[in-house]
Amino acid sequence: MLRFISLFFVLSLAFGVMGQDLFTRKKKALVQYRTYRRGGWMFAPGITYMWGRKPKNEERDITQKGRIAVYAEVGRFQIFKDEGNIFNYFDYSLAYKRLSGIEDFAGNKAVFKQNYILGNFNINNIWQRGDYTFIQNSLGVNLDYKFSEKYESNGSGSGNTGRTLFSLHYKIGYGIKARGNLFIIPSIEVPILNVMEWEKGKSTYGIFSSRYKPIIFSIRFAFLRKRNMMSCPDNGLSPEDKKKQDMHLMGQ
Questions:
Q1: CATH architecture group of domain 2-251
Q2: pLDDT at 23
Q3: What pTM did the predictor assign?
Q4: What is the pLDDT of residues 30-40, one digit of tens each?
Q5: Strand 182-196 relative to strand 205-207: parallel, antiparallel, unpaired?
């Protein structure tokens, strides 16, 4: 796990170096600041899948199967001033997710279904790959509240997750600028550390006699807000254009 986190930060630093002035260097700017503000609304439909794993030292013949369930998210995002350095924008949102899976032991199937309301916060790195495409790496936190659950089992086993969960997660996506103010970003999200319930640094949940890792596949639709044309013109400049304007004014 520590190696994974270390690798993530090394990649983020590399993306940050490559991403300096990424909106203006040798490619078309992803954001036209004269027309659009630095933030807006977003929503993301998606699905979840519980990747099952057999616990260590478990000798019984137990198999785990994930089930596809629903995910839906709505929130806002904001680009950092001067487009940031390593991380270029942040976002926050509310979401609903269902987590579901099956454990099979000697032909007896146990099914679980858990429903959560959650809050998300992410900081995001943008690595522009073309005039209209980019790779997005995100590091974030999520606070989940489990408002309902159902277990179907012949035995007495159940989930050992509490009502409230707090986790760190990593997300990677491939972004497409569909039009001036619309960005579409398919993404995959995985937890990297459970803080609450704390389980010795694991990123999986213990349910029945097995462990499961929740994976979220989503498609983010992010809409930039249009700029008020009566606002100060300087606010609509990209960092490079602002530098040029400042140098011009100093030379007068």
A1: Beta Barrel (2.40)
A2: 45
A3: 0.79
A4: 888 889 999 99
A5: unpaired
Q: Where are the beta strands (DSSP E) in 6-61?
A: 36-53
Burial label for 206, CB within 10 Å (0-12, 13-18, 19+), is: middle
Q: Which tokens is 225 given? A: 């807000």
Q: Phi-psi bin for 26: left (phi > 0), alpha (psi -120 to 50), beta?
A: left
Domain ranges of the chain: 2-251
Tell me whether strands 36-53 and 62-79 are parallel, antiparallel or unpaired.
Answer: antiparallel
Kindly report the number of other CB atoms within 10 A of residue 232's CB atom: 8
CA–CA dist 71, 214 (Å, integer): 12
Percent above pLDDT 70 for the chain: 76
What is the C-alpha radius of gyration for the chain, rounded to an integer number of angstroms? 22
